[in-house]
């Protein structure tokens, strides 16, 4: 018998790495997701507050005062008198009007110093502007937007879109309102406000390190931008960012490409002016903040991971792998005929007891072998046939002793498995909030199931009591799906379930899991990549049937004749106990197993009687 040394240790180390690293990776990704969401929420709250402050500063510091000033001017009876005096004239200089009228206009202009100009346009086409006394041949205020919008909104002040002044080229917004007197409209008063003032006020507010603010008018013209002055008086469509027009939800974070980069933007609309303040920040800036937070967390994660893995590897090597390696070496030596080999027995634990038992069995084997040699020598003196018979007896006796020894080793393997189970429970407690914490339970259950398999190996040929409970076969299959799907994905294969409605049965769930795992894994091993194992349940006459089918090449006739017999296997590393255990479990459940095979695959049918006796 050829034994692979360190096979258990290799598998244990491999699975320990997977069990430790996968939760750490998943946990790290989850933490990064939570922190990223928190950073974005903080940015959302921060920009909302900044944009609110911008609107408040503009509204309280400029728009509201100008609204109030222009409204007071429009409702002042003296303004009506000025309108009548101006008539259809264009006032070119202060000498053309009474000093009292001039002083009246100058006083109102001083109410709000930030106003660039104060104008009065009459219904007859006359115009008075302070302080510049602007004149232009053929100029008619009635054709101007501020005049027409005021006429469309009689009785209320109106804020116009920004426009460039013909005299200075400066970009201004206008506040205008009609002048009513004795139910007649005499004209419109207008106040101009330099847009550059807005830009200076916006620059006081910072959005992150490199962020900036864009201010859009009610007609989506860019009034101010602290970073791109060349965008002024243009629309988002003209600068190649039409998405800015569709921003509607205040405080909502949007992803927009600006200047060829992916940017995060947030919008806030003023209910007074209808202007939209848009905060813009490079998405990489928030990613950098997330990275700054995550770096110390990942360093701590890595240090903890190495400490845990190092401790597990050291303990496993010293207390599990080394004793198993010594016992494995002893079994290989005895199998090769070295009856003098003895296992070190200095350990004061279960492995030490097992080593003593191994050495005692080796002593008995040596003693019995000597006796057999003596008997063979005596038989050789008689006839050749007697010699051959004695050789067969010696071979059988040797196999029986090795079988007894193997049974003892299998019995003692439970102890290191208990250590493994303890470490998995410890990891589960540490990672109980992980979205993959359920896999710890699955692995612990698998260790328990492996312990059950050892018991089945020791008592395969004996009658064994089963722990029957009233349960549904579909629930047992669904509970074990994550495990068998994991096995399938490793080899690029798939599992398909076709579970019909079936009645509950008296079954031992652990033993039925054993049957499902053995048959599904046999099916997976019988197929090439992209193969499919199909698990079905249905009722047939008075039985509940569980059918497990693969897409392999079928079972050969000579193997099919001996199927279910212990130690009959076609696998290089197989034990030949998988299907015999299934047949044994089926017998204890009063169930029957049948098989159908061909070139297109093999299907096993496990049939349970519906009317069962306990």
TrEMBL record:
Residues 318-370 form the HAMP domain. The chain crosses the membrane at residues 12-31, 293-315. Keywords: ATP-binding, Cell membrane, Kinase, Membrane, Nucleotide-binding, Phosphoprotein, Transferase, Transmembrane, Transmembrane helix, Two-component regulatory system. Residues 408-612 form the Histidine kinase domain. GO terms for molecular function: ATP binding; phosphorelay sensor kinase activity. The keyword ATP-binding applies. It comes from the Bacteria. It is an enzyme of class 2 (transferase). PROSITE patterns: HAMP, HIS_KIN. CDD domains: HAMP, HisKA, PDC1_HK_sensor, PDC2_MCP_like. This is histidine kinase. It comes from Pelosinus propionicus DSM 13327.
């Amino acid at each position: 018998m050829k034994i692979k040394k360190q096979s258990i240790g290799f598998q244990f180390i491999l699975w320990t790495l997977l069990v430790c690293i996968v939760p750490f990776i998943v946990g790290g990704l989850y933490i990064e997701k939570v922190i990223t969401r928190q950073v974005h929420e903080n940015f959302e709250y921060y920009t909302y507050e900044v944009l609110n402050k911008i609107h408040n500063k503009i509204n309280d510091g400029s728009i509201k005062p100008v609204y109030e000033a222009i409204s007071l001017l429009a409702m002042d009876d003296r303004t009506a008198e000025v309108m009548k005096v101006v008539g259809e004239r264009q006032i070119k200089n202060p000498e053309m009007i009474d000093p009292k009228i001039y002083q009246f206009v100058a006083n109102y202009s001083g109410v709000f110093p930030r106003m660039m100009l104060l104008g009065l346009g009459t219904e007859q086409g006359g115009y008075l502007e302070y302080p510049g006394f602007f004149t232009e041949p053929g100029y008619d205020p009635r054709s101007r937007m501020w005049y027409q919008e005021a006429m469309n909104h009689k009785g209320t002040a109106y804020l116009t879109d920004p426009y460039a002044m013909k005299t200075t080229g400066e970009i201004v917004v206008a506040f205008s309102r009609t002048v009513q007197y004795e139910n007649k409209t005499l004209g419109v008063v207008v106040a101009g406000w330099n847009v550059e003032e807005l830009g200076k006020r916006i620059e006081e507010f910072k959005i992150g390190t490199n962020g900036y603010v864009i201010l859009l008018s009610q007609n989506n013209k860019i009034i101010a931008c602290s970073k791109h002055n060349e965008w002024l008086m243009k629309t988002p469509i003209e600068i190649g960012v039409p998405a800015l027009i569709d921003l509607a939800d205040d405080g909502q974070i949007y992803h927009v490409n600006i200047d060829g980069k992916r940017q995060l933007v947030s919008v806030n609309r003023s209910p007074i002016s209808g202007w939209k303040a848009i905060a813009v920040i490079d998405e990489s800036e928030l990613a950098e903040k997330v990275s700054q937070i995550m770096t110390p967390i990942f360093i701590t994660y890595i240090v903890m991971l190495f400490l845990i893995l190092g401790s597990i590897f050291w303990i496993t090597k010293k207390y599990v792998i080394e004793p198993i390696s010594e016992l494995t070496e002893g079994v290989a030596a005895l199998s090769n005929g070295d009856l003098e080999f003895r296992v070190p027995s200095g350990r004061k634990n279960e492995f030490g007891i097992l080593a003593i038992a191994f050495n005692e069995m080796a002593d008995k084997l040596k003693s019995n072998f000597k006796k057999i040699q003596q008997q063979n020598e005596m038989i050789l003196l008689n006839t050749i046939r007697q010699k051959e018979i004695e050789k067969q007896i010696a071979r059988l006796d040797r196999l029986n002793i090795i079988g007894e020894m193997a049974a003892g080793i299998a019995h003692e393997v439970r102890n290191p498995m208990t250590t493994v189970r303890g470490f998995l429970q410890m990891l589960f407690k540490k990672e109980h909030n992980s979205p993959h914490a359920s896999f710890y339970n699955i692995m612990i259950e698998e260790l328990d199931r492996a312990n059950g398999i050892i018991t089945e190996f020791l008592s395969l040929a004996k009658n064994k009591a089963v722990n029957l409970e009233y349960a549904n076969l579909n629930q047992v299959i669904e509970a074990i799906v994550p495990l068998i799907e994991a096995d399938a994905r490793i080899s690029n294969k798939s599992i398909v379930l076709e579970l019909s409605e079936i009645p509950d049965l008296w079954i031992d769930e652990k033993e039925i899991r054993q049957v499902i795992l053995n048959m599904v894994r046999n099916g997976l091993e019988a197929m090439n990549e992209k193969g499919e194992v199909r698990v079905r349940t249905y009722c047939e006459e008075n039985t509940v049937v569980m059918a497990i089918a693969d897409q392999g090449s079928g079972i050969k006739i000579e193997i099919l004749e001996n199927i279910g017999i212990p130690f009959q296997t076609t696998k290089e590393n197989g034990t030949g106990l998988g299907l015999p255990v299934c047949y044994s479990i089926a017998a204890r459940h009063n169930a029957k197993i049948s098989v159908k095979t061909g070139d297109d695959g093999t299907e096993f049918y496990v049939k349970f009687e519906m009317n069962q006796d306990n």
